[in-house]
Structures are given as structure tokens and as C-alpha cells.
Amino acid sequence: MTHQHHIDAIRAASARARDAEAAKQAAVTSARVAGVAWAEIGEALGVTRQSARERYIAIEQIAKAWKAVEGYLAEIGRGRDYPRSSADMVGVLRDEGSLDDADVLDLQQLLHRYSQGMLGETITVREAELLTDKAIPLSAKLFGLTATPHPA
Fold first, then answer.
1. Is 142 left (phi over 0), alpha (psi -120 to 50) or beta?
2. pLDDT tens-digit series, residues 103-139
3. Angle ∠(15,28,66) on CA atoms, nearest 5
4. Which pTM value belongs to this model?
5. Domain ranges for the chain
């Protein structure tokens, strides 16, 4: 094997490891959102419950926050006979004044980091806390809109 072949093999193995980690993170997040216990997840990963929780808790927090927001956006859309994507619904709510630019930016950041986390990017607990702290009032605002008729 030449020097370059060794380097290429290392790069290929690293790419496979990143893909595997992303798939594992997505599977753990999906399991937690579905209510699977940390003990079961840890066992499946071959680590302790605590170890699994420490590794994946941040993306779980962001996933739960995004799922709540996404659910409210879908409910608002259904209530208005406007079954569009979450992004479309955010645009409609911004245009009518129900969401301001800061709300939209916070929603975009939440979705962006959720998407990155599901692709395997590490998210710190502190970052997850900051994002979920912003998501709580947004969720409350969206919840209030689920029962509010849209402006004519």
C-alpha cells in the first residue's frame, strides 16, 4: 500500500464513523422522543444509563422543543385550512404580525441546530438550554394562536 492509499483509507474510515455516529444520534433522539428509557438506550449502546443520558441529553432537549413548536404550527395551519410546511406557516404568522422578526430568528436557530444535531453534530447542554429557553415563550405564543382565528 502506498502512502496515499493509507491516507485515503483513514479518510474513508473517518467518513463512515461520522455517518454511523449521526445515525446513532438520530436513533437515540427518536427513541427518547418516543419515550424509550435511558436505561434501555444505554443497554443498547453498551454503556450505562447515565453515560447515554450525558451524551445525548442536549439533542433530546432540542428535539422535544422543536417537536412542540412543529406541532403547534401544524395545528394552527389545520385550524385555518392551511396545511403547509412549518416554514410556510412561520412566514404567514410573521406576515400577519403574530410573530416578529426575533421570533422567526429564534425558530430558525432552533430548527437549524435540531437539524445539525440529527446529522450527528455535537450540541452542548448549555447551547440546548439557551435554545429551549427561547422555545418556551415561543411555544406559549404559538399555543395561544392555535385557538385564535386568523385575521381577515
1. alpha
2. 999 999 998 998 888 877 888 889 999 999 999 999 9
3. 100
4. 0.72
5. 3-146
